[in-house]
Design goal:
Purple Acid Phosphatase, chain A, domain 2; alpha/beta; six-stranded mixed β-sheet
């Protein structure tokens, strides 16, 4: 692996749909994802079980309710819980992660003093890719309640994004 390069696997909105989450994680790993990021609406412990042993982090979504229990469970599995907002340095890039349901918080991130290379969000269940200033905002889509279930791969060195359709 080249210095500073990392393949990030991004997914969101699993809503405790274990079969879809398993298929999404399998798709990401099969395509080289080294670190997984869940953009919220995890749903429950069974989704976290799928991340056990994989370098990963997640944030809360508006449908994640038993947060203290899930956070403790995640920590026991070695999975990083970033609460409502994650700031990670991965592959030499500054990465922000949030669910995307709080538009005021989203505006603070894009207009703030901290420069992020990437902002990963979920919530809309629609894959997207846009830039606001120097920040690339990527929504991987969703693995639940979506016509096409999708995930995203990002190469931090080349800045190549691939939205992948997940077959369940």
């Amino acid at each position: 692996m080249e210095m500073g390069r990392m393949i990030l696997g991004v997914f969101s909105d699993t809503h405790d749909n274990v079969s879809a989450a398993r298929a999404g994680i399998k798709t990401l790993r099969a395509n080289g994802a080294e670190f997984l990021i869940h953009c919220g609406d995890v749903g429950g412990q069974h989704i976290l079980d799928l991340l056990a042993g994989i370098p990963s982090a997640f944030v809360w979504g508006n449908n994640d309710f038993d947060r203290p229990l899930l956070k403790g469970y995640a920590e026991g599995l070695g999975i990083q819980c970033c609460d409502d907002f994650g700031h990670l340095e991965l592959g030499g890039k500054q990465v922000a992660v949030m669910h995307g349901d709080n538009l005021r918080h989203l505006a603070k991130i894009t207009e703030g003093n901290i420069r992020y290379d990437y902002l990963f969000v979920g919530h809309s269940h629609v894959p997207s890719d846009e830039r606001v200033g120097d920040t690339r905002i990527i929504n991987p889509g969703a693995l639940h309640r979506a016509a096409k279930k999708t995930v995203a791969l990002v190469d931090t060195q080349t800045d190549v994004l691939r939205h992948l359709v997940v077959k369940i």
